[in-house]
Amino acid sequence: MNTEQKKVLLVEDQKVIALTTESWLVDNGAQVDVAVNGKKAAMCLLNGYYDLIITDLMMPEMDGVELLTWMQKKGIDITTVVVSGVDEPSVMARVKQFPNVSHIIEKPITLAQLAELQTLLYD
């Protein structure tokens, strides 16, 4: 297993979820930047490199689908995990069309689901 520290961009507007997820990622060896919406995530992506993006869908200013669309237009091809409570088939179908989306996880996220993400970082 590759244990080199990986850099994760966590895009989540709900503080408790962001803090819990960030804490788990850091405890498991990742370096984490947190953005509270897609607009702030876009700024992070323009200014840094990431091994993995974990993003919510429903956020203010720029939502997850808008972020994924922006990334595609900019040619940013980083493995992305979408974590969302959205249960709208048309939205989920659209999200699945983005080639960089490797996983879609329904909220509430569990520690077992977070553990699965470790394979994305260190395999």
Sequence-ordered SSE layout with sheet pairings:
Elements lengths: L6 E5 L3 H13 L3 E5 L2 H10 L4 E4 L8 H11 L5 E5 L4 H8 L4 E6 L4 H12 L1
Parallel strand pairs: 1-2, 1-3, 3-4, 4-5
Proportion in helices = 40-55%
> What is the H/E order?
EHEHEHEHEH
Major sheet summary line: 5 strands, parallel
The helix tally amounts to 5
Low-confidence parts: none
The tally of beta strands, per DSSP, is 5
What overall form do the CA principal axes indicate? globular
Give, in spatial order, the strands making up the sheet with the most strands: 2-1-3-4-5
The helix/strand class is alpha/beta
Beta percentage is: 15-25%
Intertermini distance = 6 Å
Write a concise keyword list for the protein shown above.
alpha/beta; single chain; 20% strand; 5-stranded parallel β-sheet; 123 residues; 5 helices
Describe the structure.
This protein is α/β, with parallel strands linked by helices and 123 residues long. It is built from five helices and five strands, in the order βαβαβαβαβα. The chain has helices at 15-27, 38-47, 64-74, 89-96, 111-122, and strands at 7-11, 31-35, 52-55, 80-84, 101-106. It has a five-stranded parallel beta sheet, sandwiched between helices. Helix 4 (89-96) links the parallel strand 4 (80-84) and strand 5 (101-106). It is globular and about 35 Å long. The mean pLDDT is 91.
